[in-house]
Amino acid sequence: MTLMPYDDRDGFIWFDGRLVPWREAKLHVLTHALHYASCVFEGERIYKGQVFKLTEHSQRLWDSGQILGFDLPCSVAEVDEATRRTVAANGLVEGYVRPIAWRGAEQLGVSAQQTRIHLAIATFPWGSYFPAELRKRGIRLTFAKWKRPHPETAPTKSKASGLYMICTMSKHAAEAEGYNDALMLDWRGQIAESTGANIFLVIDGALHTPTPDCFLDGITRRTFMELARRRGIKVVERAIMPEELGRAQEVFLTGTAAEITPVGEIDQYRFTPGEITRVLTADFDQLIGRVPASAAAE
Question: Is 157 annotated in the active site?
Fold first, then answer.
């Protein structure tokens, strides 16, 4: 597979209040965020030239910074505007947005209250998170070794970079065994999420999803819950144990990158993408303008 490095591209990145050429958006090796994970970020999708749920993402970025003890250098509305300018500067109609805020290099140590807070926004083309043929039959997951931590041991309501270390480790381990992703449990042994997306189970016509008390209540997650309720599908947020996967007829993931991705296998459990997954996929495609309303209703 030929990789296109993210540090060597054409285009522009919003960097501390202005658009700079892509290759000039650089950090020093002693930046605090690199050493101590004092960094928060977002992942957003561009559909038809518009960023999906932009203000909700910008607000969560701001809130995540607050949880980590710093203020973004601009308001939520200014983050929105900077994002739109960056999308326009790169001429993107479909793609991905990565806003990120971090502590700079003025101090290097556990205490770094005098560091400058930086903000950058990058936009770039982005296709499906999983190949189309996998999405059609459902991806394969295995249980991760690492678990989502107790909210008293980590800032679990933030989208902080340090929380994703165990996600990378878990996904790498799953891929090494021939799986597409990993399902993470929490410290109690309850189902939490995959390494980068929330999870839903269809059990006897109702949609069940774990209560997000130690992982992100995803913006795309909430979108699909609303789409389901509009369809009259019962949505249940609750603690879900791994053995309950045996009761599920359908399972799917939701997230900015994953959008809605059917799951066909989680270790010994098997599922078949069914009617609820199909209907919600069509409703989401209509919502983002991927297909006209008439086509989605068929």
Answer: no
